[in-house]
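Final report, results section. Input specification for complex C-07:
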Amino acid sequence: MTIEIEKKEKGLSRRDIITGAGKIAAGAAILSMGGIGKVTEAEAYSYASDFKYKKLNPREVGQISYENYFKRWCASSVIAGFVAPLKKKVGGAWKGFPIDAYRAFHGGLAGWGALCGTLSGAAVIIGLSTRDTDTAESMINDLAFYYSYTELPSFTPAKILKAKIHNMTMAGTPVCHISVGKWMRSEGVAFLSNERSERCARLAANIAMEAVGMLNEYAANGKYSPKHQLLFNLAANGITSQNNCSDCHGQNPPSPNETYQTLKK
Amino acid sequence: MTIEIEKKEKGLSRRDIITGAGKIAAGAAILSMGGIGKVTEAEAYSYASDFKYKKLNPREVGQISYENYFKRWCASSVIAGFVAPLKKKVGGAWKGFPIDAYRAFHGGLAGWGALCGTLSGAAVIIGLSTRDTDTAESMINDLAFYYSYTELPSFTPAKILKAKIHNMTMAGTPVCHISVGKWMRSEGVAFLSNERSERCARLAANIAMEAVGMLNEYAANGKYSPKHQLLFNLAANGITSQNNCSDCHGQNPPSPNETYQTLKK
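Structure output:
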């Protein structure tokens, strides 16, 4: 499964919305012919890693991620959720793991609002814990689908550390700015609020727990069965992207002024 | 410098474009008062890491990153650019570093088009090579500014490995989808082309070289002097974001259909 086109993606009608069936077919042809340019770099391969994974308790990892958020933010809190139990269960390379070396992935990279740091943190753990590029990429791709198309956060902490929150939202994207923005609008709170902080902490727990499920399957079976095929997005319009095109390409995005007014209330 | 508002950002007129001076002032006030919610998690701190950095040759790192791209893609090729010379110069923890464990950060995370993988790769190296969250975050923030507001790629390889390319573009964002899309429109090529591949390989070299400059300063002086202050984006409209709002919030974004038609030519 190096380059495979997803013929049909359940529940996603990107092809109808945007490009039309003919265009998708053309896009698929490009790939199946091996590409206009030979995308020889697309080959998958195995790699070595000293980081061994053993089956973890999802709830435990989620709770640790949640608790760590208020110090370490999104990326490093997910990493902490794994490293804490792996230090005990496996030891080895996990001992002395520099959890906070990844802290700046928070807020979509140092607050730039690009990739949600919970996914960056999980991707680091998945990459280190697996041994071939296809397995890592398949898990991370599935995790991006989970992140984007699930109402989150659904995690309920053992004890609420920051604030009661009431809403879950579907981000439609792994992009921090859009994901956080949608939830803030739904909850009616500002970025620098305890509620927003609580939401991101619970989201970190959700993403960590989903990743635990994948890695536990891998630990048990020596392989992972992807839920979604790779490169659906690439095939759809010839450029890497998620499926939330109308969030930017169209009339849907709230104007920054409107957003700001909403959040000032 | 835990939370500091950038009063004035040279060359960026976000406040005028979007929110107006009064609104920015309100946003700044929220932060200077310590926040609506106490953002106690914003504290900076030092951390341990076994990864030692020694001064590297930017051009050498850039060239290695460029060459590695065609196998390893954006994130891991930047990492390879650093790890190859650091293995020789420093050894230690860099020996056996799992370069490919980070490969799935390519294409904005497994092709989802969020954060450009060159920045993810550089952020991993910066995080491992520094020792406190403020230094790492300042470097990565400056790197995101460089990425977003520089005409790239400007790197010229020792030998062109994939294709001649002619254009440089300013991404205005660290987001892969927008960055790659703008360059493709400018160059008039599709995603699965040798030209696009060549562009991303050269971009990997540029980002790696810029990061080398920062880490070399840190190695020489034991500290890094930030070029941009943190949290400008956060203060501007109460949500993490970059400065390219009108790329999505407005009439500027090309429709996906238009983009596709352009690229089919």
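Chain B has eight helices and no strands. The radius of gyration of chain B is 19 Å. This concludes the modelling results for the funded period.
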